[in-house]
Amino acid sequence: MSRVINVNNPTKIRNQHRRTIAEILRRLSQKPEIDAEAKDMAAMTVYLLREIDSGVKQSIIAWEKRGYWMKAERFLRQWTWTAEFAANIEDVIRHDAWDLLPELLAELFGQFADIQIKSMMRKPDVWRGAYQRLLSKPPGELPY
């Protein structure tokens, strides 16, 4: 019997989500005002940040099982910002404080400065409807 290899490991998923967020940030920075699409993009950013945080926690659990306590602790500190930004952006969305969003996104942009975007690969279908999904669920819940 051969080994089962999971090709969707947390690192690959994290990198895909980081790329998607980087593209969303680029598109949001080009918008003159907060419209329905911008709200969807902001909500999708919340979901993606939560999924990154979830993947980080999966990795940490796996490392702790193997006794890599220091590595797990360093990794956790490296990625603590994801949960914080997800909560802050969700708070802005739920309280209609859209005037605070540009400042938050400017801070978030620094976390994605290492991602080079030559062409936009993500289609608007990725984030379409995310705003309504976010508002229909309790705070802090993943989309599925």
Describe this structure in words.
By secondary structure, the chain is an all-alpha fold. The protein has one domain. The protein has helices at about 10-30, 35-65, 70-80, 80-95, 100-110, 130-135. Helix 1 packs antiparallel against helix 2 (about 35-65). The protein is globular. It starts with 9 loop residues before the first helix and ends in an 8-residue tail after the last helix.
Provide the domain count. Answer: 1
Number of strands: 0
* Share in β-strands: under 5%
Label the structural class: mainly alpha
Round the Cα radius of gyration to an integer and report it: 16 Å
Give me the number of helical elements.
6
Output the helix-strand order.
Answer: HHHHHH
Cα distance, first to last residue? 33 Å
Mean pLDDT: 89
Q: Describe the main β-sheet briefly.
A: none
List keywords for this structure.
single chain; 144 residues; mainly alpha; globular
Q: How are the secondary structure elements laid out?
A:
Elements: H1 10-29, H2 36-65, H3 69-79, H4 81-94, H5 101-109, H6 130-136
Helix pairs in contact: 1-2, 2-3, 2-4, 2-6
What is the compact description of this entry?
The protein has 144 residues and is mainly α. The chain contains six helices and no strands. The protein has helices at residues 10-29, 36-65, 69-79, 81-94, 101-109, 130-136.
